[in-house]
Amino acid sequence: MTKRIELPQWKALASHSEAIGGLHLRQLFFADPERGGRMVAEACGLYLDYSKNRITAETLPLLVDLADACGLQQAIEAMFTGDHINQTEDRAVLHVALRAAREAVIKVKASDEKKSYNAVKRVWQVLDEMVKFANKVRSGKWLGATGQRIRNVVNVGIGGSDLGPKMAYEALKCYSQRDLRIEFVSNVDGTHMAETLQGMDPAETLFIICSKTFTTQETMTNAETARDWLVDVLGKDAVPKHFVAVSTAAKEVEAFGIDTANMFGFWEWVGGRYSMWSAVGLATMLGIGPENFLAMLEGGRAMDDHFRTAPFAQNLPVIMALLGVWYNNFLGADSHAILPYDQYLHRFAAHLQQVDMESNGKSVDKDGHRVAWQTGPVIWGEPGTNGQHAFYQLIHQGTKLIPADFIGFCKSQNPLGDHHAKLMANFFAQTEALAFGLPEEKVNEVFKGTPAELVPHKAFEGNRPTNTLLATKLDPYTMGALMALYENKIFVQGVIWNVFSFDQWGVQLGKVLASQVLKELKAEAPDLKHDSSTNTLIQRFRQMA
Ligand code: G6Q
Which of 49, 63, 74, 81 is nearest to 20 (CA)? Predict the structure, then answer.
């Protein structure tokens, strides 16, 4: 396979970056004053303005040429039709089936089944079970072992079995039934479980043990601690009324003592970090209610339809992915900031960090060769306006190029006084300032009376690129569309970088090493055979613990 950097389309972009890389956004807007109304795209209620990027009218077409040369359209079709595109694990990648319409048909051939089957049918069987269960718990029909109503739900899971459902629950919290408390425990640090259970009554608490494999050390340790906490007060027989499972591993679930009738399944073709739409979202559904959960799926589905059918130059995930490639591979950026101006999205960047970095943080291409180009960027971010009083300094005046996505909403879910106008004033002002800066000759117009020697410190270079995503309101449909937009963006970038986006071998080594060290921490007199640093640290820990 031709190496990406040898493609004529890649080379064309490299020369284009040399030709226009030195242009400032001030010059680009001066030469093309209407670009702010033209470099936009819209789908599923999301309005994308990408005019404040370091691009000319030629850049996107050149990027689209690259996408074509990399076979993007065929790759999209391969995913949507159940091809085993996760080749290192020989699996289909069908999180899109999780949000497909009930009547859709997507055939999949899974390794654990003899025949291919319709993935969507199975998805809806589980969704229907989840809805029934959620309604029972929310209405108070599902009672704990002592006949008390469930007031607390604790999701026990980690990574993909925690970040997505927690992010979605937090994002849509204003739709939740406030008398049902939803918590997420992930860390094997006992503090997480201990603090979460503070003041909770076991008789009113339901645990969802959420683990695809049901073998993950952190989750199983937390699950056992939760079971001990409950059994101590209510006895062993109470377990079935207070524990349900979300897993693909029925045997392991049964061995833990959970009735498999209360197990919500998913499938090998759902990657952990793409699973918030499946039964992994049970805690989210319990919080926000089935109707809102299904509306979130609908938003995801609408974005998938857009992604699959819209021409690349008007396709939101494709545009955002290609602009990311532009900065990452041609303008030397190595990180990308996600800056939502909505407090409900306070876990959005954390979730995207996993989805993006675990998917495209690879350095070997699909042929097993070391890549000669940059792959996934560092993803980070926090909600505005908080970030403005913290790390924005570096984005504005630091030496690094940091493309950023600003995400904002026209209507607040909590319209208090003029809070929302103030929030959004900051939102618009920031992208303007980042793009156009404050040249030295204008410093005194803004910061009156600035002495000459301080002018360089108070000037802003500008030319910091941003995308702006604007939607009416952060409702479940919009939330689904927004998340699917980013999932599909990540897919596109994986295709361009020619990496396998749906495996995660990078997390395996740590698991193996940790189990060896655990034995050494517990042993009477371990024979430590690590390097001198690790040996000394372990010895010190053993002396001090
Ligand atoms: C996600 C990863 C990883 C996984 C966790 C939890 O894509 O595979 O984050 O979700 O390790 O795994 P289990 O759900 O199997 O416990």
Answer: 63
The CB of 275 under 6 Å from ligand 1? The reply is no
- Indicate the DSSP class of residue 460: B
In sequence order, the 6+-apart residues with CB closer than 8 A to the CB of 185 are 154, 155, 156, 192, 193, 196, 222, 226
Residue 213: CB within 6 Å of ligand 1?
A: yes
Distance CA 251, CA 112 (A): 14
Q: What is the pTM assigned to this prediction?
A: 0.97
Of 252, 507, 508, 509, the residue with max ligand 1 atoms within 8 A of its CB, to mutate for a pocket test, comes to 507
Could you tell me if the CB of 155 is within 6 A of ligand 1?
Answer: no
What phi and psi values does residue 472 have, to the nearest 5 degrees? -70, -50
Closest ligand 1 atom to the C-alpha of 358?
A: 7
Going by C-alpha positions, the residue among 474, 335, 460 that lies closest to residue 398 is 460
Task: Name 19's Cβ contacts closer than 8 Å, sequence gap at least 6.
Answer: none
DSSP state at residue 340: E
- The catalytic residue positions are 358, 389, 511
Q: What's the pLDDT band for 113 if we cut at 50, 70, 90?
A: confident
Give the per-residue pLDDT at 9.
98
